[in-house]
Design goal:
This protein has 146 residues and is mainly beta. It is built from 1 helix and 12 strands; from the N terminus they run βββαβββββββββ. 15% of the residues are buried.
Length: 146
C-alpha cells in the first residue's frame, strides 16, 4: 500500500492506494477535531483486507541483478537512487540522495519496499533496466545507468 495524509486549517485527509488491486481509499474530514482520518482509513482497509503486516517474503534471487545507479526525474527535479547488495549479500539496499542506504523488504516478483516507498524493478530480456519508485507524492520511472 502507498499512503499519504495531509491537512490544512479545519480539514484533514488520508489516502491509500493498493497498486496490486488498483484500489484507492480516500477519507476526507471536515474538522481538525477528534476524528482521525487515518483511523477511519485503517478500519476500511482492514474490513476489505483483514489485518496486514509488512513482513515481506524471503528473497532468494541474485542481489547483484538489481545493483546499479538509477536516474530520472521526481517531482520535476533530477532523482537518483543507488541500489546495492546488502552487507550479508542476501538482499538489497536503496540509497536516495545523501541519505544512508536503507534495507528493502522483498515483496515477491520484482517488488521491494522500505517504509512507504515501493520499488518495482523492470526486467527486459533477463536484465533489470529500470525501477519504478512509488513514494506517495512521488511516482517516477528511473532508468538504470550502469
Amino acid at each position: 500500500a502507498i499512503r499519504h495524509g495531509g491537512g490544512i486549517n479545519g480539514f484533514l485527509s488520508d489516502v491509500v492506494f493498493f497498486p496490486d488491486d488498483t484500489l484507492t481509499i480516500a477519507v476526507l474530514v471536515n474538522t481538525a477535531g477528534p476524528v482521525n482520518p487515518g483511523s477511519v482509513l485503517q478500519q476500511i482497509a482492514q474490513t476489505i483486507y483483514g489485518k496486514w503486516s509488512r513482513t515481506g517474503v524471503a528473497f532468494t534471487g541474485n542481489a547483484a541483478d538489481y545493483g546499479g545507479l538509477y536516474q530520472g526525474f521526481g517531482r520535476g527535479a533530477p532523482f537518483v537512487v543507488t541500489i546495492a547488495a546488502d552487507n550479508a549479500g542476501t538482499g538489497i539496499t536503496a540509497k536516495r540522495g545523501a541519505a544512508p542506504p536503507q534495507p528493502l523488504i522483498y515483496l515477491g516478483g520484482e517488488r521491494f519496499e522500505n517504509g512507504g516507498t515501493r520499488y518495482h524493478f523492470i526486467r527486459e530480456n533477463g536484465r533489470i533496466v529500470a525501477v519504478r519508485v512509488d513514494a506517495g507524492t512521488l511516482n517516477s520511472r528511473l532508468k538504470r545507468m550502469n
